[in-house]
Amino acid sequence: MLPRGSRFTLVDTGVKSISLATDGSLYEVSRLNQLRRLGANSKWSVIDSGVQLLAQTTSGTLYELNAQQQLKILGANGVWLLVASKIVSFSIDQDDVLYTLDSQHNLKSETAGGHWIWISTGVQSFITAPTGFRDLYVVTTQHDLKRLEAGYSWSTLQSNIVSISIDATGVVTALDCHHRSWMYYSSSISPILDPVGGGAPIFCMDPPSNDEVLWLAHIPNNAKVKAVIIENPTEDTIDSPRWFADIGYISAGQLHHCEYQCTVQYMTAKGLQTTTIFIDHDHLIRWAGTNAVGAM
User: In this predicted model, what pLDDT tens digit does every residue of 94-127 receive, in sequence order?
Assistant: First the structure.
């Protein structure tokens, strides 16, 4: 229902998609695959033809994908410049990271400085998570739904998936081959920490809480917990700086591995029981230097 005093105004017909620039300019792709802009005189002007898909950065830079599978960017002089060829789909996330999917099912991203990073192969489609999340979701050519968390951690969420979408809160809706709809939400948001200056030592400082240990240990509901023991990290190492696929404007970082051994002692009808689990609290640290490896 529209708020009182609001009304719809017809702007144009025969429109496939629209995009609103940061300066207020309205762009559309028509059913004739023409890229058009609405001028100050309320008239449409044709910018380009044969356009299949349109997107823009937060600063208003335009990208288009044409019928020849060419991805182009509109330069400051109004000339379209070729970015990549044999592209079937592309997307720009909230940090202005460009993702491309080519005709060979290869998914890549371009980060700050023009570095291309290979993410995965065998990708049928993909979506990026909204602001506040560092996730990328893909549907593979084998119809598996996978999640790439913070650019380094892959997990398979569901099989037999044919299409996916995501809303502004990070909820993923997936449609499977049996016409069933699934919803997935991750409460795990991977932290990305600022660089540690002055050559200071880096060590794990985020042990799991008792509640996290009890939840992951799957203790029976009727059990009486006697003790939760969280050991010092069994792993505390940091990788060399390298480029990551999905950490936005950071471009490069170091993966800090933190693993904790956790033991829970609890009473059941069978007596005192002990469960030991290992919990990873890996995280990325921004890299402020140069010579990070992994760029393509």
Answer: 777 889 999 999 999 886 566 778 888 999 999 8
As a residue count, the chain comes to 296
11-85 placed in CATH 3.30.70.1400:
no
Q: Give 102-190's CATH code, choosing from 2.60.40, 2.40.10, 2.60.120, 3.10.28.
A: 2.40.10
Q: 57 near 82, Cβ under 8 Å?
A: no
Q: Exposed, middle or buried by CB within 10 Å (0-12, 13-18, 19+), for 156?
A: exposed
Closest C-alpha among 263, 115, 135 to residue 187: 135
> pTM surpassing 0.90?
no
Residue 57, CA distances (Å) to 19, 54, 172, 219 in order = 11, 11, 23, 47
